[in-house]
Amino acid sequence: MEEPQPATITGKCYVVDGDTIRIGKVSLRLAGIDAPELEHPWGQKAKWELVKLCKGQTITAELEPSISYDRVVATCFLPDGRDLSAEMVKAGLALDWPKFSGGKYAKLEPEGVRKKHWKAAARQRGHMSVFHK
């Protein structure tokens, strides 16, 4: 029996922040990663790195069945096959989120990146009081 293929959306995207894009009217959370919020340290830099990656590109989003904060979760790819989540982690502007990725992107994290993005790291550990400061 064949595995069902994931639903996909393709198109140009609008970058909301370092781990959220919109294709048409659909907000998509990049699967398996966590980027700093816009108002947190490195948040604007993360957004603009994602803008740079996506600019002028047609993005293919493979939708997951889960919804995160009213956004669809998707693994998103550039036309050359690169995974946007992997590219953001490699750039040091997002963290692997093992709870959701199974550790898929952990090996791509630059050394010391969890100290740099301590707010996102605290959120992953469930320390939300620190995250909201």
TrEMBL record:
SMART domains: SNc. Keywords: Endonuclease, Hydrolase, Nuclease. It comes from the Bacteria. PROSITE patterns: TNASE_3. Residues 15-94 form the TNase-like domain. Coiled coil: none annotated. It holds the Pfam family SNase. PANTHER family: EBNA2 BINDING PROTEIN P100, SERINE_THREONINE-PROTEIN KINASE 31. This is TNase-like domain-containing protein. The lineage of its organism: Bacteria, Pseudomonadati, Pseudomonadota, Alphaproteobacteria, Rhodobacterales.
